[in-house]
């Protein structure tokens, strides 16, 4: 959700690395969790899948040499508060863990509304 006086991001895309044995299940989790943003599979290469609504801006790739992924935090912008609520519901239903109920967070800024879910690998996924 864009807020006045808050600059928009110039981030083109981001990616996470997952263990080979969890590759397909993590892709399915993100498809379910990000459905409120109309995210779906756009590109696929051996060991990598690009998700997005129009362009592949979120990538899930198999970690090289079986390296254990490190947990990260990333946030997606929602078109409205209803999408934040739906993300939280779908992400939990798909096997995520609540890391912050949908709601206002005025400590970030006056109109900041977001939700946080840990994906099955422990990454902190936010929609705001």
From TrEMBL:
<dbReference type="Pfam" id="PF00903">
    <property type="entry name" value="Glyoxalase"/>
</dbReference>
<dbReference type="InterPro" id="IPR029068">
    <property type="entry name" value="Glyas_Bleomycin-R_OHBP_Dase"/>
</dbReference>
<protein>
    <recommendedName>
        <fullName>VOC domain-containing protein</fullName>
    </recommendedName>
</protein>
<dbReference type="InterPro" id="IPR037523">
    <property type="entry name" value="VOC_core"/>
</dbReference>
<dbReference type="InterPro" id="IPR004360">
    <property type="entry name" value="Glyas_Fos-R_dOase_dom"/>
</dbReference>
<feature type="domain" description="VOC">
    <location>
        <begin position="10"/>
        <end position="128"/>
    </location>
</feature>
